[in-house]
Write a structure and sequence with these properties.
Radius of gyration: 24 Å
CATH class of the largest domain: Alpha Beta
Helix content: 40-55%
CATH architecture of the largest domain: 3-Layer(aba) Sandwich
Number of strands: 8
Structural class: alpha/beta
Number of helices: 12
Bound molecules: zinc ion
């Protein structure tokens, strides 16, 4: 065999092998049920329920502001190819209903995970008007339902219903995983209740958007936030002055700030009032770092509890 023939033979063999490789990659079907979720708590609960029986992804890119998020065309395509799409409510994801109604897929099941939750109406005095809110639906109802752990448990139920309907063959495993999750949520609720019952102040002063209304309501804290229920709402100068006055008169030594948002305003307020800053996590979304470290909703809530105990001077139990 001369060299030229040899090269040709090697080429043919190589091409044939690479074609086989390509073909395999192309025809490989996606394994199991495909689930697309919007916010981090849904993603974390859904992946726990799924175990290794379904593939769960989060629509929000890590670190992205969730209140102003709207899916791009390629993200709409991801939803259209899924077997299950899970969102929290039209108050949080006002785009969801419109987008799914435009998707022509018989395989897609849509779960409104906040359907059974009782919403807190947000009164004008809580929202501290002056911020810009978009659309009627976003005004009036507080969308941060996952921060009340009894609501989080109802969200788990709704996600479970979706999994069981979409993939009944694995329903026993899904039910078992959901039960474990709900037991953890109940234990977390108990721990928050007992830890936060011993604090020397009940004033939760927050230099961010109105995120922790459910948490404050459940554990009987007096919540004051700088701005409205959407994180793009901007506080008025009067509101900033009022909050500084509130901090000074409360005798607190800490102002709470929130993760994933610019700390500039909170820093100015804390400096003006002469107090320190502690971080709280709203858990709408997570940073790229937290996502790659595989943090869970429970990790974020444990961090929050530590910060709250410090900021509200609660006695350790
Ligand atoms: Zn928010």
């Amino acid at each position: 065999m001369n060299i030229r023939i040899c090269v040709v033979v090697i080429c043919i063999v190589f091409c044939a092998l690479s074609l086989v490789g390509c073909k395999r990659a192309e025809v490989k079907p996606a394994a199991g049920l495909q689930v697309v979720t919007t916010l981090f708590p849904l993603y974390d609960f859904a992946r726990t329920i799924a175990g290794d029986k379904a593939q769960v992804t989060m629509l929000l890119p890590p670190g992205v502001e969730p209140h102003t998020f709207e899916p791009k065309p390629e993200e709409v395509i991801r939803i259209s190819r899924a077997g299950l799409f899970i969102y929290t409510s039209r108050y949080m994801e006002p785009w969801a209903e419109k987008i799914v109604s435009g998707i022509d897929s018989t395989a897609l099941r849509v779960i409104n995970a906040g359907e059974k939750v009782s919403y807190r109406a947000v009164a004008g005095k809580d929202v501290h008007e002056g911020g810009k809110e978009h659309g009627n639906d976003r005004k009036g109802m507080d969308p941060h339902i996952w921060l009340d752990f009894t609501n989080a448990s109802l969200i788990v139920d709704a996600i479970l219903d979706g999994f069981v309907a979409a993939d009944p063959g694995n329903s026993a495993l899904y039910r078992q995983n959901a039960e474990t999750l709900k037991a953890r949520l109940a234990a977390l609720d108990q721990r928050y209740r007992s830890s936060l019952s011993t604090c020397s102040t009940r004033k939760l002063l927050h230099g961010g958007h109105y995120t922790f209304g459910y948490l404050a309501g459940r554990y009987n804290l007096d919540y004051h936030a700088l701005s409205g229920i959407s994180s793009d709402s901007e506080p008025s100068a009067e509101r900033m002055i009022a909050l500084i006055r509130e901090i000074k008169s409360s005798g607190t030594t800490y102002l709470f700030a929130e993760e994933l948002l610019s700390p500039r305003l909170t820093e100015t307020l804390a400096q003006e009032a002469g107090v320190g800053i502690l971080m709280l996590h709203g858990a709408h979304n997570v940073s790229r770092d937290d996502l790659s470290r595989n943090v869970s909703f429970f990790d974020l809530m444990e961090r929050n509890l530590e910060q709250l105990q410090k900021g509200l001077s609660c006695r350790p139990k």
